[in-house]
Amino acid sequence: MKDLPELVSGPDIERKSFEIIDAEVGDHGFDETRWTVVRRIIHASGDLGLVKYVRFGGDPISSAIAALKRGCPIISDTRMATLGISMAKLQKINPSYTSDKILCAISEPSVIEQARASNMPRSVFNIRHLKQQLDGSIVLVGNAPTALWEVLRLYHDENLRPACVVGMPVGFVNVSEVKKMLMETDLDYITITGRRGGTPLAVATLNALASLALSA
Predict the structure, then answer these.
(1) SS (HEC) of the chain
(2) Per residue of the chain (216 residues), what is the pLDDT tens digit?
(3) Is 156 noted as a catalytic residue in this protein?
(4) Are 168 and 141 in contact (CB under 8 A)?
(5) CA-only gyration radius of the chain, Å
(6) What is the domain class of 52-215 according to CATH?
(7) Which residues pair with 138 in a beta bridge?
(8) Do 42 and 14 contact (CB within 8 A), yes or no?
(9) Residue 27 neighbours by CB under 8 Å, 6+ apart
(10) Residue ranges of the domains in the chain?
(11) Catalytic-role residue among 28, 43, 129, 156
């Protein structure tokens, strides 16, 4: 198969990818630490255009690093996200990390039943089910805007304050609006404005934060 490019190692692919992103994006206006996160998001998506849409509120990187070092819970709106988080990195940051600290209750029978009975999305009841762990946690929302809406409701109504919110739901209904609501708070957050987002990008953000925590 002479037309195929030569295979290279995973680390070399990542290094070369970052070099290409740096060269093609050029001046971007982010400091070195924030660029580490944005570049990882671009790498996970293949979309250089995202550089225009990533937003940081407050001091989310410092807050996330501190939270990871103390072994905070990580709450997600999807099981997919829990599988993509690097446990190896988390355990290097804080050996107390196990799968029990990466939380998603979307498949819990009580969550399913409450959603069915109320005709509301399971994503809402997932967050409600986990609200005792919400204060001081890192929240990843890469799919359901309703999950981010519930996080914000609990923040406003019950004064539950995550250490950092990675708010990147994707889609066409209430997605831009709920991200705007997040940006109007004083929470520490990382988001992507507009309709773009997705679980892979939320996970990439968390893994970038973990890498920064390892080097902090």
Answers:
(1) CCCCCCCCCHHHHHHHHHHHHHHHHCCCCCCHHHHHHHHHHHHHHCCHHHHHCEEEECCHHHHHHHHHHCCCCEEECCHHHHHHCCHHHHHHHCCCCCHHHEECCCCCHHHHHHHHHHCCCHHHHHHHHCHHHCCCCEEEECCCHHHHHHHHHHHHHHCCCCCEEEECCCCCCCHHHHHHHHHCCCCCEEEECCCCCCHHHHHHHHHHHHHHHHHC
(2) 567 667 666 677 888 888 899 999 988 999 999 999 999 999 999 999 999 999 999 999 999 999 999 999 999 999 999 999 999 999 999 999 999 999 999 999 999 999 999 999 999 999 999 999 999 999 999 999 999 999 999 999 999 999 999 999 999 999 999 999 999 999 999 999 999 999 999 999 999 999 999 998
(3) no
(4) yes
(5) 18
(6) alpha beta
(7) 74, 164
(8) no
(9) none
(10) 52-215
(11) 43
- Amino acid letter at 13? I
Assessment of whether the complete model's pTM goes beyond 0.85: yes
Tokens found for residue 54: 């990533």
> Which tokens hold the place of 212?
């920064």
